[in-house]
Automatic annotation (TrEMBL):
This is SET domain-containing protein. PROSITE patterns: SET. PANTHER family: EG:BACR7C10.4 PROTEIN, HISTONE-LYSINE N-METHYLTRANSFERASE SMYD. Transmembrane segments: none annotated. Coiled coil: none annotated. One of its GO terms (cellular component) is nucleus. It comes from Effrenium voratum. Gene3D superfamilies: SET domain. Residues 146-335 form the SET domain. InterPro entries: H3K4_H4K5_MeTrfase, SET_dom, SET_dom_sf.
Length: 390
């Protein structure tokens, strides 16, 4: 299954030199592209000096975290797919090595073994983002978020885990910041490829898979959301292999998709170019933040999306919207800013559709109690006493 999902087959094997520039143009002096290309070149030709230099540069580039193109910001080592270059290369998976600002091209390494680590330079519009696993960003457990100002709260009925202030927090304070351990395109096939990549790497580097498995598996999902994930799992399987799936295999994939849907946060809104769909991120700590229609905190990558300015370093920051006493819940608004002005029915309808759960934040429970809606009335009224986290 892993192998089938991670590779796309191509009927013919295009003959590529060690580095290809698409579309072909005369080479100028390309400092970044050239140095990063040494890595692939060295791997192909066994040059020890070049390999050492490339390794040094790659270590230095690790600090960049995110690479900037003309309009794109991509985490290093992202898996992308070529598009629009030639029929032979359509959909070919590649790893992002760097961006060459003078040539205005991305440096990519072919992932299929038949290319023997060759690299290519392509313009921004000639690939689509797939996913990126960042095992180094996965937290190793513990009960406090980075910096110690937030900690895991006691489980609450109907809500599961959450975060709370571990100390007095001031309005506007950055409570903690975190890089995602997984970023995916808004595509269930990519989510499954990323999952199988984490699984394949879990022997040497178990961090990302452990962090993924610690996330809630959509325990409070509506029946409709559960069924949607099951249908998507069947589609993913069908697209990947002609073998019939066992019920256990389908259940496992559906669970992966539920985990992703329940814990993802929008990271990139996507641009105008071909295939520039939205991107979602999973975090060890940010993904523990519950939603509230009267939020006490905000996620700056969400507000940056609205202003069009994504965080430069790839980190998302959780900021206090007001002062919080130790033990107070840290909750954010999962929806657009205007959600906070909608009435309870519209807010809950939005969260049900977009996030798969019936909102049980104190504001919704109180407003639903004052203005009962159909069949949910008795269920909600009985929950008011159980859930009070503002
Ligand atoms: C990003 S996770 C938050 C952490 C999660 N509570 C846990 O136990 O890991 C989102 C999930 O938490 C639950 N959740 C978050 N906010 C909620 C709310 N206001 N009402 C009901 N469930 C909520 C839902 O199950 C949702 O799918």
């Amino acid at each position: 299954m892993a192998a089938v999902l991670s590779l796309r087959s191509s009927p013919s094997l295009p003959q590529c030199p060690a580095q290809v520039v698409f579309p072909p143009t005369p080479r100028e002096d390309l400092p970044l592209g050239r140095t990063l290309a040494l890595s692939a070149f060295a791997a192909a030709h066994g040059s020890c000096k070049a390999a050492k230099r490339a390794a040094r540069l790659r270590r230095a580039a690790m600090w960049l975290g995110c690479l900037h193109g003309l309009a794109e910001r991509l985490p290093q080592h992202s898996t992308v797919y070529l598009t629009g270059l030639s029929p032979d290369l359509e959909g070919e998976p590649c790893e992002v090595l760097g961006f060459d600002p003078s040539a205005k091209r991305w440096l990519l390494r072919f992932l299929h073994p038949r290319f023997e680590n060759q690299s290519c330079q392509v313009p921004e519009q000639c690939f689509t983002f797939g996913y990126c696993v960042q095992p180094g960003a996965a937290a190793l457990g513990g009960s406090a978020a980075p910096g110690g100002a937030a900690r895991e709260a006691k489980r609450r009925p109907g809500l599961g885990r959450g975060l709370e202030a571990a100390e007095q927090l001031e309005q506007g304070q950055v409570i903690f910041e975190e890089c995602p351990f997984l970023i995916t395109a808004d595509d269930v096939n990519e989510v499954c490829r990323a999952y199988f990549k984490m699984r394949a790497a879990s022997g040497d580097s178990p961090g990302a898979l452990d962090a993924f498995n610690r996330l809630s598996a959509g325990e409070h999902f509506s029946q409709e959301a559960v069924q949607r994930c099951e249908a998507q799992a069947a589609q993913v399987w069908q697209a990947a292999t002609s073998r019939a799936a066992s019920p256990l295999e389908l259940r496992q994939i559906a669970e992966v998709l539920r985990r992703w849907e329940a814990n993802r946060f929008l990271q990139g809104a996507g641009g105008a170019g071909r295939g520039r769909a939205g991107r979602y991120a999973l975090f060890s700590w940010v993904s523990l933040l519950n939603h509230s229609c009267q939020p006490s905190a905000m996620l700056d990558s969400l507000s940056a999306l609205q202003s069009g300015a994504l965080p430069e370093d790839g980190k998302s920051r959780v900021k206090a919207l007001r002062g919080l006493a130790p033990g107070e819940a840290i909750c954010i608004n999962y929806g657009p800013p205007e959600l906070l002005e909608w009435d309870v029915a519209r807010r809950r309808e939005y969260l049900q559709r977009q996030n798969g759960f019936t909102c049980r934040c104190p504001r919704c429970l109180t407003e639903a109690k004052a203005k009962p809606q159909g069949e949910e009335k008795s269920d909600l009224v009985s929950s008011v006493a159980e859930c009070s986290y503002t």
